[in-house]
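Troubleshooting: if your tokenizer reports a length mismatch, compare your output against this known-good record of 412 residues.
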Amino acid sequence: MSETPHRKPRILLGVTGSIAAYKSLELVKYLKSSAEVRVVLTAAGSRLVPENELKKASGFPVWTSLFKGATPIKPGTPGGSHPLAVVPHIEYAKTADLILIAPATADILGKLVQGLADDLLSTLCLYASCPIWAAPAMNVRMWNHPAVVSNRKILLARGVSFLGPDNGHLACGEVGDGRFAEPREIAFQVESHFRHFGEWTGKKVLVAAGPTREPLDPVRVITNHSSGKMGYALAQAALNRGAEVILVSGPTRLIPPAGIKTYWVETAEEMRNRVHRNFPKSDILIMAAAVSDYRPSRVSKTKLKKTSGGLTLRLRKNPDILAEALKNKKSSQIIVGFSAETDHLAQNALNKWKKKPCDILVANQVGKKGSGFGTDRNEILVFSRKNPKPLWFKNDLKSRLAEKLLDEINKF
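Known-good structure output:
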């Protein structure tokens, strides 16, 4: 549901029993800048974050029980034979625009899959008709457990969107996927969803993201350090604006947003085939993938054995997906290309733009600590046919840069 002129979006924030629950206070603060937030706190969550603090942060009573605050019905009232009347949080759920479960535990994901309703939060998730978003936070082993993997696939198929988790140091001391996404980032995605909803309704956007892998033998591959985060952020931003989005993704650990048709590929050839199959019916192509320029001339059917000497590899050029798309481009289509450089960013990117004159070329410097490949941040130089000079977007979250890039696309 989109934001109406007379009120802010209404968000039901479910806080569960993850160790990251304390971050919900910060999340509420960010969400309140653009939305009305009502908090639903589970029993386990209440052991980790004080109910009064959440009440103070949101400005509303915190809901913890299905029947707390219910209004008794007077005997003889039509339809009032039952001892309860209006349950305020159930009534609020009728007009909620979004249920955001943050942090979301493995337990609540399992309940959503099974359709359980044994507490207030799980009941509201079954009752409400608005979208459900989840920001998971759990141990990496729990996140990768087959049951959790299966549950999130089922939820994605049902339309539940996931924000995160991130990869990094966890509260338990381990390192890996399962870290709660940054509250500022979660709030940004929510705000973007409501602010831009419907702007791109009717548009078809094709995004290529992530690395490719070119096999040497059954064991080894040629690849790169791309995480796919920039491409996924662009896909999410386009979805937030109401576009129909197709994502062609190389191997990543990221979860595609619900509502996006995703094709998984490994090699540059596979990515080329998927992109060019979907390009003719797309309005916008965003080639954010880090495609391998070369592949082995010969792929060994068995593992290459170590020898006392060196190993010489013969490589051949991969197809240039961006160049082929430009060759087949219709006048009504918009193509956005990317250029990853380690040095002489502006000149190298300009040279590429002259050879491949896409509508927008996005250049970023890789191999730089704190931005580029494998991080949540980037800084980019944007060449556009609509701008007389290139634009420099300073170091920022990739999600925010994605919104700025889509604003540039809007100029066409």
